[in-house]
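Priority: medium. Attachment 1 of 2:
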């Protein structure tokens, strides 16, 4: 296999977990370990067709049950748990909506403002850079199941951008995105694709 062929195969596939009660209501969910809703389970099952027949060298998942169960329903019950894939820790803002937070901190976003008691962008970048290193260490495709903000952050770190750029990448539940390499540059191959939608 030529070096160019190896680059084509060097891909990182991202799946955001299925819907939970809090994701449906726009509440920030990190450490709260919520199950999928019935809609979330149904959407996760649709991921099977999108991901079957693809050879993944490794499959990783956040330890949260919403990610693990999505991986199971998508056909990957043996996904390896990786604590670095957990959602951005929101600290005191856990369970709140952006509208609620902005009542006291106008213009707040997780990307640009600190969350009291939560993680900084630098801390999130550090652990997601480890996920990227793990993906780059294998020849072939890596599939990860994780969360809205952590996957957006992972994408911008793959691209070599500052983590604040993650605010430009909308990511819905039960979607598939693919990061890759084109002529030596790490790129987005597809983003926020809803299987069967």
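Attachment 2 of 2:
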């Amino acid at each position: 296999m030529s070096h160019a062929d190896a680059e084509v195969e060097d891909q990182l596939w991202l799946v955001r977990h299925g819907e939970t009660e809090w994701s449906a209501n726009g509440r920030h969910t990190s450490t709260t370990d919520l199950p999928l809703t019935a809609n979330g389970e149904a959407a996760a099952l649709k991921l099977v067709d999108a991901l079957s027949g693809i050879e993944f060298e490794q499959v990783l998942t956040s330890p949260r049950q919403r990610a693990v169960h999505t991986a199971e329903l998508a056909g990957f019950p043996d996904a390896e748990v990786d604590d670095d894939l957990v959602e951005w820790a929101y600290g005191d803002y856990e369970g709140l909506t952006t509208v609620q937070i902005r009542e006291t901190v106008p213009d707040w976003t997780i990307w640009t403002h600190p969350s009291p008691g939560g993680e900084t962008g630098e801390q999130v970048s550090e652990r997601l850079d480890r996920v990227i290193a793990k993906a780059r260490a294998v020849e072939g495709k890596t599939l990860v199941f994780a969360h809205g903000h952590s996957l957006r952050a992972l994408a911008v770190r793959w691209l070599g951008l500052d983590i604040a750029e993650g605010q430009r990448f909308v990511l819905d539940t039960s979607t598939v995105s693919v990061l890759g390499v084109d002529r030596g540059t790490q790129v987005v191959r597809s983003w926020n694709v809803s299987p069967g939608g």
